[in-house]
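Cont'd.
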Amino acid sequence: DSGVTQTPKHLITATGQRVTLRCSPRSGDLSVYWYQQSLDQGLQFLIQYYNGEERAKGNILERFSAQQFPDLHSELNLSSLELGDSALYFCASSTEGSNQPQHFGDGTRLSIL
Amino acid sequence: QKEVEQDPGPLSVPEGAIVSLNCTYSNSAFQYFMWYRQYSRKGPELLMYTYSSGNKEDGRFTAQVDKSSKYISLFIRDSQPSDSATYLCAMSAVPTGRRALTFGSGTRLQVQP
């Protein structure tokens, strides 16, 4: 158990809809990262938050947004969903220390019908 | 061209075999190199972490980094059916606790009993 909790495990919805994915980081971790894993694409970095502030952006679509709350949990909001958004969405957390690894949750599987 | 290239496999070996998994990369700024193992329906789990060039051994696992060739490898000795998983290489130009990682697309390994 990595200590990173993601809910829900599986989400099924339709095109055009909006969903929210939730992540609770490991106790004490201030950084949260969101990644998208599509078939044969590996893990693509979406966005990073550190202690409530956005720190870095990767290949995140304008239809997607995220935030980190004072209790350090994070939410990834996906709107105007398209079939191509079907993927696994992973959250990872880490401490700020220089060689601290990123610990991953078990992901949310998003299926767009 | 992707920054990190990884043979997707699948790679099928008999139990007890030595397995070699490899990644090449193009960004010479990468200094931190990781191997993650991902079981089906689970999040990536950190296996090995190395800084710059050289070898690191942990039990049956050995990680090698050759920065001059921009090539990293993971060797698994005496492979077991429980090693059957997808192996992801990951890299970073800065210490791993501070920024997102760049991943290869993963190699699927199947160890036959």
